[in-house]
Write a structure and sequence with these properties.
By secondary structure, the protein is mostly helical. The protein folds into 3 domains: about 80 residues, Dna Ligase, domain 1, CATH 3.30.1490; about 80 residues, no CATH class; about 150 residues, no CATH class. Helices cover about 45% and strands about 5% of the residues. It has a two-stranded antiparallel sheet with strand order 1-2. A two-stranded antiparallel ribbon has the order 3-4. Strand 5 and strand 6 form a beta hairpin. The longest helix is centred in the N-terminal third of the chain and has 28 residues. The chain is elongated, with a radius of gyration of 29 Å. The protein starts with a helix and ends in a 27-residue tail after the last helix.
């Protein structure tokens, strides 16, 4: 009778003890055996997906225990997107604390203003974020472009130049959607109709302004020149647009033949804007098109330091070309970034 009582009491206690030891082992003793790794939680990713990937990658000892722990702590919807470093030898509780209590690692991918989608694609591939081929294929996909609300043939012009927290091996679709969302956010308050142009034309012209000058103060001036030409149906004659039209086969030097060969982007033959954007402009270039400088200039030529000389007529322009482009001494320019503050190009009055 006493033996039966001991068994009836002892067996459940032993079972509880064994379960407790098993849980303790899974939570504190078992260690992640792999090297230090970055675990990326995707935006809006569900807990079940996070838990399954932690298990699949061998980072936790028990997905069931991780689920119960997160449920008990009330944090199943508290996991934030980002990149987290999981150190070799971490136990399940270490992983939990890293994902819930530590900040995401900032590993920014920066897109400079004025880069086109081909350049961005190369940069993404170099950082192992996504492949160039997948990125460009989606950038040119009519169905995908339309799904983003873009009225054009590609996403060019809408990949907003900024720093992004992209993890390695992201789908190109997620990368593009993130950049387009940022474009929409940054331009949400813009009234394109105030220019008399549609949105697509504004972004196209802004991309040209972005490519033509490295000096922010000149952007309204450059925009004013292009708009003056458009009003009188004068060819825009912008090298960057012509280069973009042949970009995938561009060898680094634009030739006379290139300038004479008609295309949807060759503004030496077109009497209008090119077919679409040629790069991805920042908000300041877009604003320059919305608020161009009021002047009568139709020409500009580089002073070889990132700034330009503006002219109202062809004769004055030719003189500037001889001085700044055909005189060897003046071609030994320096960066506009080296200018002193008082040497900055003056900002012309804004056209009302």
């Amino acid at each position: 009778m006493k033996k039966n009582l001991l068994f009836l009491v002892g067996a459940p206690l032993l079972a509880v003890l064994l379960v407790g030891l098993r849980i303790y082992y899974a939570a504190y003793i078992w260690r992640y055996p792999g090297p230090d790794t970055i675990f990326y939680i995707k935006p809006s990713e569900s807990f079940s997906s996070i838990n399954a990937r932690l298990d699949k990658e061998g980072i936790i000892s028990s997905p069931r225990l991780f689920h119960r722990l997160s449920q008990w702590k009330g944090v199943m919807t508290k996991f934030k997107s980002g990149q987290y470093q999981i150190k070799s030898g971490s136990n399940l509780m270490d992983v939990y604390n890293t994902l819930i209590n530590e900040k995401s690692i900032a590993m920014y991918f920066t897109v400079p203003e004025g880069k086109n989608m081909y350049e961005i694609g190369r940069m993404l591939e170099e950082r192992a974020i996504t492949t160039y081929a997948e990125f460009i294929e989606l950038c040119k996909s009519p169905a995908f472009v339309k799904s983003l609300g873009i009225n054009g043939e590609t996403v060019e012009g809408y990949l907003y130049p900024e720093s992004y927290d992209f993890a390695p091996n992201l789908p190109a679709e997620e990368v593009i959607k993130t950049m387009v969302r940022q474009f929409n956010k940054k331009t949400a308050e813009i009234n394109y109709a105030s220019t008399g142009m549609n949105k697509e034309d504004v972004i196209t012209l802004a991309s040209m302004v972005e490519k033509e000058t490295g000096d922010k103060s000149e952007r309204p001036m450059i925009a004013g020149v292009f708009l003056n030409r458009l009003r009188i149906k004068m060819r825009l004659q912008s090298d960057p647009t012509t280069i973009y039209g042949i970009y995938e086969n561009y060898a680094g030097n634009i030739t006379k033949k290139d300038l004479l060969t008609p295309s949807d982007y060759n503004t030496y033959t077109l009497k209008a804007l090119p077919k679409g954007p040629i790069a991805n402009p920042g908000i300041e270039s877009i604003k320059a098109v919305l608020h161009p400088a009021g002047h009568k200039y139709l020409y500009f030529v580089s002073q070889n330091d990132g700034t330009h000389i503006f002219s109202e007529n062809y004769g004055a322009h030719q003189e500037a070309v001889v001085k700044w482009q055909k005189t060897a001494k003046n071609r030994e320019g320096k960066s506009w970034r080296n200018k002193k503050p008082d040497e900055a190009a003056p900002v012309a009055p804004v056209q009302k």
